[in-house]
What does this fold into?
Amino acid sequence: MDLDILKNVGWLLLWGGLFFVMMRYGCGAHVTGGHGGHGRHGGHGGGETAAGGKARDPVCGMEVDPHTAVSTMHQGRTFYFCSASCRERFTKAPDDYMGSSIPGGHHHG
It folds into this structure.
């Protein structure tokens, strides 16, 4: 096999692996409907900081890092979100997500 072909196959495998990981565990997990097993729905309401300095997304219930999460202010409180789409859903109808539990289950789309 030619060395250039072998390099190209290696790059293809590397990029394919990266794509798989991002779709499974990263941003693509929202598109495919999964969160890699971390989409628990109990516990804290939106904006509250959980143990370990984490916050819970009020829309989908995902635990997020307040230092890197998307956020918005509502009624003097900061709310943290796993994605811009969850923040948009919250800003359209914040009263739907102000309770202490996640209404109606997981709402990514």
In short: Strands lie at 55-56, 63-64, 70-74, 77-81. The radius of gyration is 18 Å.
